[in-house]
Specification:
mainly alpha
């Protein structure tokens, strides 16, 4: 598909969602719309354009909607990291009881 048309469509979609008060939610809505309603080839083409040309011609909201999401580690890894951190800290209290 013509990349100029994809850019125009993406900017139109982001203009629609720009009325959302929360900019992060607006970017998520743009991304969700592209996932739900665009054919995979169209999504792949606009993402390649974003990566090659840094999204020249796209609005700021469109750029945030196309940008790949930051990956979070799986829940299990986050728990393991939190537990390691917790157990590596010195004890903050003394639970020893003195018997009289």
């Amino acid at each position: 598909m013509n990349i100029d048309l994809l850019i125009k469509m993406t900017n139109d979609i982001s203009a629609y969602f720009a009325s959302e008060p929360d900019p992060e939610q607006a970017a998520k809505d743009v991304a969700a719309h592209l996932r739900r309603f665009w054919e995979p080839r169209m999504r792949r083409q606009i993402i390649e354009y974003y990566e090659e040309r840094q999204g020249a011609g796209l609005s700021d909201l469109a750029l945030r909607g196309i940008a790949p999401p930051r990956r979070r580690p799986p829940v299990k890894q986050r728990w393991i990291r939190a537990l390691r951190h917790l157990y590596s800290q010195p004890a903050r209290h003394n639970l020893s009881l003195e018997i009289q």
